[in-house]
Amino acid sequence: MAGHGKEAHSHGADRLCEAGDRVYSRAVRRGRVSREDAETVPCLVELALLHPDPDDMGWLVPTSPQEVMTRLLREMHEHVVATQSRMGSAVSAFEWYAALGGNAHSRAEGVAIRVLDGLPRIRAAMDEATEACASEVLAVQPGGIRREDELSEGLHRAMALRRRGVRMRDLYTHVARHGQGLLNYMELMGDSAEARTLDEVTERLIVFDRTVAFIPASSDRTIALELRHPALVDYLVTVFERLWRLAIPLTAPLPDTGIEGITHRERSIAALLAEGHQDAVVAERLGISVRTCRAHIARLSETLGAASRTQLGVRIAQAGLDGPPRSPELQPLTTPGAGTPESPTDR
Description:
This protein has about 350 residues and is an alpha+beta fold. It has helices spanning about 20-30, 40-45, 65-100, 105-110, 120-130, 150-155, 155-165, 180-190, 230-245, 265-275, 280-285, 290-305, 310-320, and strands at about 35, 50-55, 55-60, 115, 135-140, 165-175, 195-200, 205-210, 210-215, 225, 250.
């Protein structure tokens, strides 16, 4: 396989080279391909898309497309989790550096990272950034269903941006879909705003014109950081854009779980339980109350026929609910009974 150069094959399974696409497709259609035919595409072996035929070492057999899709989904899920973890570490680092801003040797950093202590200062800074904004606002809004007072508090800023033709993009958790206030807000914004949802999002973030960003610096959100350092703002924008590409438009339905009687939210809960998280942590990450979370867990146990939490963990793994969704062909379990529709349980 020497002489073909690795430059032409420096890609992943999500985007094969032209030769790799051709040979892999042929292997899937025919069930195998000779080693000689695969010499020009070492990438297929390196990516585990082809492997030796145990019955005849002169041939290579393909990994099934369904297994490849499952692998790609899992890698994407792990990437999102890692990105969110890095986001949390970055916020902690910002707080530490911001605390040094009052020192005489840190005057330059104080301009790039400003601590806003108290809601009046935060609102004043947000109003100032809104007035200066000319083209785009990116926002991450965690916490599930948005309260009416939260939506009303920022409505005057959103309307001012809409009048100037500023484009607004918002990320929410899937739970936010059940809030009528959000639906009314999006209808009011019209074409100026677009919203998408994910199972989980990062902590609150607002970026104006990719030049200034605001993030909370305390758990009660009464202290915030105003970030104007280009590298920090670019990092936050990159996080937002990657989450945006993975999110589902608010106007589109959530994907079916592929397992009868288990809703999309219950699949998300099952995956977090499989990671070892307690009920309160699961509820916080999905933007629901602990009571609602436990009600979903009870329905999940009933659907999977689990009599205890230990047994539920086993059933979750057996059903393939301990990771990202698998393609329909690979679902190992179809539970009896009628499907349970996703319901906007009161928080």
